[in-house]
Each structure stands twice: as structure tokens, then as C-alpha cells.
Amino acid sequence: MIRFYFHPTPNPAKVALFLEETGLPYEVVPVDTSKGEQHAPAFRAINPNGKVPAIVDTEGPGGKETRVFDSTAILLYLAEKTGKLLGAPADRPELLSWLMFLASGLGPFSGQSVHFQFAAPEDAVYARNRYRREAERHYQVLNDHLEGRDHIVGDSYTIADISAWGWLDRASRVRKGEEDPLGPYPNLKRLFETVDARPAVARARQVGAGHDFKKVNDEETKRALFPSNYHPSPVA
Q1: What is the pLDDT of residues 24-58, one digit of tens each?
Q2: What is the pTM of this model?
Q3: Which of 34, 46, 59, 179 could be joined to 214 by an S-S link, Cβ 3.0–4.6 Å?
Q4: Which structural domains are found in the chain, ordered by start?
């Protein structure tokens, strides 16, 4: 059984989609990051970095209970555990390359683009421009790679496509104010729409739906999500 520590945000959504695609048994454990539950000692014992998603596999290697954190690590772990959505063995170097591109580039720059457009003070013009343009540059890299391709890696749907879907689902926030945020990237838009039409996506979107996650963006939420902003000695 997989215990899946979840909040309805892009990185946990990737894991939810993998679990729904493969039918692997799992139990959802809600972590309300707006209330600061990710900082609780019990959760930090699972992910010392205090972020979702994380999983605990009660039937890990050798029958040992195993923790895994970070969405890319979880996707790789579960794909290897099940033998599903890994693509052809010959494509493994390409798969790892694009997974790292998504994990270290498209995902973080998308997240910071959202942060500086929606959460940061209005005077953060440089940061808003920096992160939005870098997110768009990553969109273009992936769009160019997808020319003439149905999938990011090889000839089949893999965890690379799942990983991209998680953040592309928030393109309207990454590219705030754009009527068709993926319109300038037609290959990327086609990939997103192809993945988003899969039946497992509808099920993944329902994960955690029965839990009343906090939606109010008050001072408690800001301190929970951005604790470094409240450091007693801010950088000048």
C-alpha cells in the first residue's frame, strides 16, 4: 500500500495521475500546506524538506517501509516498482534528461512565475519578468522538441508526459493575462490536451476532493507557505 501525502497543487497532481493510470493501491493523506501541516515533525520525518508530495510505500524493497519525496523521484520510483510508463529501455537516457529538465527548469520557473505574479509585492518587477520569461523559454524548448512527436520520449506515453502535464495545467497562471496561454506553443498545447483527455486525469482531479483544504490567503497561509520571508534578519 502507498500512503500518498497530498495537497491539490501541480507536483502532487503528477503523482495522483500516475497512481490513477496504473491502478496501484494507495491511501490519500491530506497535508494542508496553507495551515502549515507540512512543517509538523511527523511530516518532516517523511520529507525533511517540508514539501508535498511524498509517499510511504509499506511494501518497499525487501518488504521494508520506504519513504520517497519529490515528485520526480516518486514518479521514477513508482514506474520502476510497477514496470509501467518508463518507455523503452533504449530511451532511458532521454527519459532521465527530460525528467530533469522538467524538475529543474520548467517546474521551478513556472512556480516562481506564479509566485511573483500573484503573491509577491507589486514592486518586484524584475523578478516577475525574470521568472515569467524563463518559464516561457522552457515552454519553447519543449515545444520545439515536440515538433513531429506525439510524446516527450520515444513512441509511448511515459512519466515525462505526466510530469509536464502537472505544471502545464497551470499555464493560465504561469502566463497571467493570456487568453490562450499555450497558444504560442502548439506542440506543447497538443501534448497537454492529449494527456488531459485521458480518463485517468478526471480521476486524478478528484483525489483529495473530500477534504476541506484551506482556501483563504491570510497571514497564517503566507507564513506557512513562505516562512523564509519572515526570517528575523531579512536580506537588505
Answers
A1: 999 999 999 999 999 999 999 999 999 999 999 99
A2: 0.96
A3: 34
A4: 2-84+206-230 (3.40.30.10), 89-198 (1.20.1050.10)
